[in-house]
């Protein structure tokens, strides 16, 4: 699992940017509790203070539905970029795409948050 090292007493934010020809729905969870649902292709989540987030796990999970056409080129060209910032550090992570059905796939990324 990817890790992000946070500076003490910093505000931590997650920025998600999705590029796809598919219809998208996304969820963000922190330690297993859903904190954000979105149908946007670009959104931000304030995760909180780094002192409270030490050893937490943030997970971004997006569902992609294909209205028409071949799923393979759409899945291939789709990107889900997650950026975590704490005011001092910034790290970019790419979502991992997993095929589902002929008209459906998902992308996900899990990141462990740790104090530096």
Overview of the structural elements:
With 116 residues, the chain is mainly beta. The protein is elongated, with a radius of gyration of 15 Å. The protein has helices at residues 50-53, 71-77; strands spanning 2-6, 11-19, 23-30, 33-38, 42-49, 56-65, 79-85, 90-94, 96-101, 104-115. The two termini are 17 Å apart. Helix content is 9%, strand content 66%. A hairpin with a 2-residue loop joins β3 and β4 (33-38). The protein is built from two helices and ten strands; from the N terminus they run βββββαβαββββ.
Return the average pLDDT rounded to an integer. 97
Shape: elongated
For the largest beta-sheet, the strand count, sense and barrel status come to: 6 strands, mixed
User: Could you tell me the number of beta strands?
Assistant: 10
Quick synopsis:
With 116 residues, the protein is mainly beta. The chain has two helices and ten strands; from the N terminus they run βββββαβαββββ. The two termini are 17 Å apart.
What descriptors fit this protein?
116 residues, 6-stranded mixed sheet, 66% strand, mainly beta
Explain the layout of strands and helices.
Elements: E1 2-6, E2 11-19, E3 23-30, E4 33-38, E5 42-49, H1 50-53, E6 56-65, H2 71-77, E7 79-85, E8 90-94, E9 96-101, E10 104-115
Parallel strand pairs: 1-10
Antiparallel strand pairs: 2-5, 2-7, 3-4, 3-6, 6-10, 7-8, 9-10
